[in-house]
Amino acid sequence: MNGRQFFEKFGPVIKKISGAVSFLPRRIRLWLFDAFKNKSGKSGILIRYILLRTLAKKTGDNVVVFPGVVFENIENLKIGNNVSIHQYSYIDAEGGIDIGDDVAIAHRCTVLSSNHGYSDDRIPIKYQEMELAKTTLKDNIWIGCGTIILAGVTVGSGCVIGANSTVTKSIDDNSVAVGTPCKVIKRRGVKS
């Protein structure tokens, strides 16, 4: 039974459990989420999903968070349906992150929504205000392992981002993009 089939069968029960868990104080839910961050197997995925539904701004159906994923500012995170976030990824939603439907984020990826300000040369950079910028990953995207997506970027629907890329600018729909900085090398669905 794959994840979609599992969720179709048990989704209503899982949502009821999430509803019950949501009555726990937020700090306890955050503590539990951190405590089960590295739990392997299907039970770990299920526990993280139940807690994620109570902590994120929005969590769709069939969202799989593998062990070792770190979320910061999870309350500003929206995740669609059928999303997988693989091991050791880092997602900081301080400025807001929207992840669409059918998105696969491979292991060791970073998705950011803030940058350090650095314009005032009289103040050390680490003490300057953070600059917040919403990051959007639209539908049907594959983010290759080790990719970094910087704040304020939109990755269009149907995109493939190659492994170890650094996405510094928005990428149009149906693009295949690679490199540091990430550049479009071809379009999906276009015959050469």
CA-based gyration radius: 17 Å
H/E series:
HHHEEEEEEEEEEEEEEEEEEE
Oligomer: single chain
Domain module tally: 1
Largest sheet: 7 strands, mixed
Query: Which overall shape is indicated by the principal axes computed on the Cα atoms?
Result: globular
* CATH architecture title: 3 Solenoid
**Average pLDDT level:** 95
Total helical elements: 3
Give the CATH superfamily: Hexapeptide repeat proteins
- Derived from helix and strand composition plus strand pairing, the structural class reads alpha/beta
Percent strand equals 25-35%
What's the arrangement of strands in the largest beta sheet?
Answer: 2-5-8-13-16-18-19
Helicity level = 10-25%
Low-pLDDT windows of residues? none
Give the beta-strand count: 19
Q: How far apart lie the N and C ends?
A: 38 Å
**Would you state the CATH class?**
Mainly Beta
- What name is given to the CATH topology? UDP N-Acetylglucosamine Acyltransferase, domain 1
Would you write up a description of this structure?
The chain is an alpha/beta fold. The protein has one domain: Hexapeptide repeat proteins (UDP N-Acetylglucosamine Acyltransferase, domain 1). Helix content is 23%, strand content 29%. It has helices at 3-21, 26-35, 41-55, and strands at 58-59, 63-65, 70-72, 77-79, 83-85, 90-92, 97-99, 103-105, 110-112, 114-116, 130-132, 135-137, 141-143, 148-149, 154-155, 160-161, 166-167, 175-178, 183-187. It has a 7-stranded mixed beta sheet with strand order 2-5-8-13-16-18-19. Strand 18 (175-178) and strand 19 form a beta hairpin. Helix 1 packs across helix 3 (41-55) and helix 2 (26-35) packs antiparallel against helix 3 (41-55). The longest helix is centred in the N-terminal third of the chain and has 19 residues, at 3-21. It is globular and about 45 Å long. The model has no long low-confidence stretch (mean pLDDT 95).
